[in-house]
Please model this.
Amino acid sequence: MALSPEFALLLLLLIPLAAAVLIPFAGKWPNIREAITLIAGVALLGVVIYLCREVAAGGRPELYLGRFAGFFEVKFVLEPLGATFAAIASSLWIVNSVFTLGYMRGNNEKHQTRFYMFVAIAIASAMGIAASGNLITLFIFYEALTISTFPLVSHKGDAKARKGLTIYALILMGTSLALLLPAIIGTQVIAGTTDFQLGGIFPPGTSLLATSILLFLFAFGIAKAALMPTHPWLPNAMVAPTPVSALLHAVAVVKAGVFTMLKVVVFTFGPSLAAETPASTTLSWIAAISIVLASVIALRQDNLKARLAYSTVSQLSYITLGAMLATPLAILGGGLQIVMHAWGKITLFMCAGAIYTISHRTKISQLDGLGRTMPWVFGAFLVGAVSIIGIPPAGGSWPKFFLMAGALDSGKGILIAALIASSILNIIYLVPIAVRGFMKPPADVAADAIIAEEQKKHIWVIVPPVFTALGSLVLFFFAGDIAEFLTPILGGLS
Model:
């Protein structure tokens, strides 16, 4: 029987949830447990590819799931932006699962079965967000994603992990309930619907004051986008094992946030109304300040994962900036940034995890000469850094080009200064990590000799970041195809 688009949408949830159910039964047999994860990942990616082809051909697969409270519908509708997010999360789930295998075993982490199970639940939640047909459905899966990551953030179970989880939960749940939910209710009251529609759903003549208030509520209620000052959850979540940082906090969780931001601007407000709403100008400046300020904070971090966390805060604000500029080029730049940042940043986080697994070093000041011992890892780190900086021929160069052009189109060309400043700061806080690894003499020659032998046992934490680094280079040549795939979300804007 041929696979239908409607059933394929259901499989976006069923495949990772089935893995989450099966994984605990295989807890005593690690090879089977991890095989279930990888098979589920490959199956999910196959379904996403099928759906992406449907969407590229002009289809908009739709699945009605039910109704509650009289008129709130839970339904899926997949369009190009959602398909792009689903493709990122599903493809990188496979890569990160291979990395997780090497990391969790290499560090003798406890509760590995629980870990794999909740990652699968989180991926199912991310798929639900990607395919949401309205704000109600999105909110349900947005909250499910938050809750499913609680055991992952607190995985180590120590005082530091509990503190990190407390901050993580308070900010993400607090902003959702106090800001995002009222924004959704306000949208229902004013627009009479929460369905996503090209061009937006607010009727002509809607008060700009009302839309400004709602846009502010959405911008700070979507705290997963880490717009300052709602960002502290992200660096505090770095107490989690590196596979969590790599997939959920470089791909699924944070990308769910910025995807939601872009989705709301494009399909709830509509780019024209968003650009006209006074709040968009203020939020553009807040995003620009977040871009620069988070980069400055990153510069001062000696802990490698902490530096990468603040870098993520900065890079996510690129997408919020693109959404608030609300011009066609800026929106496409935001969409491209979701893709390119995911591949570049997961590379950097996995490199940090490989360094920790093999050498047990966490601070940048401890990495002198280590690149000579671990050339593949540090080489991958350098490629990922080049993509984050935005230097050709790495994929990360294209989003900055589109965002700069979008800023000019919007009449806010001065905001280009934030993107330029960020690129310069990226160079200052990322490139020296690789340089000191390759160019400086090792601090402890005997220890590095032991590490050289040790890394032979940890091939599965080395191959994944090398693969994603190559992916960051390959994506440079497909940016035009991705932009063309996303173009229909502009709804005829020029």
